[in-house]
Amino acid sequence: MALDLEAIELIKQLKSRYFRGIDTANMEALAQCMAPDVSAHFFGGSYEIKVDGFDEVMGFLKNSFHADAAASHFGHTPEITVDGDTATGLWYLYDIFYDLAREVKTSGSAVYEDTYVKTDEGWKIKTTGYKRIWERVEPFKDDGRFTARRLGETGFKVEGLEPFPL
Predict the structure, then answer these.
(1) Gap between the Cα atoms of 131 and 52, Å rounded
(2) Predicted model pTM
(3) Span 5-154: which CATH code?
(4) End-to-end Cα separation, the chain, in angstroms
(5) How confident is the model over 27-45, as a mean pLDDT?
């Protein structure tokens, strides 16, 4: 079986754009990553989230990566299989998420499972989601400070955040 190396590389770039998009709240870049019928399922130690359809997925991302947060997502070791105009991908994730309003830090690792579809505009994410390998949620109240934080500049301003249940 011959590998479609061009498609694999384009899908790697797509997923990289997705991670950069969420960490910088670049909704335009994220929108370009998604198929119209995209769905997502995220299963963590303290949450399970399912969202279906472009508007619902984009709304979830907009509200999750908000101005009172800082985030870093690192996708590694992709396993991508291409079959014509569709593909599947597994990605190892390590991430850190600071919710400044709630003073909670979440870090962990997970395995993303994606499906992709090739469109006239290029490869798009059709389904995405992860299941945690491990997750640590901890309060933080220290004298440290962020000297740079992109989401503070670009993220959606969320009013009335509720405390995160620990």
Answers:
(1) 17
(2) 0.90
(3) 3.10.450.50
(4) 48
(5) 97
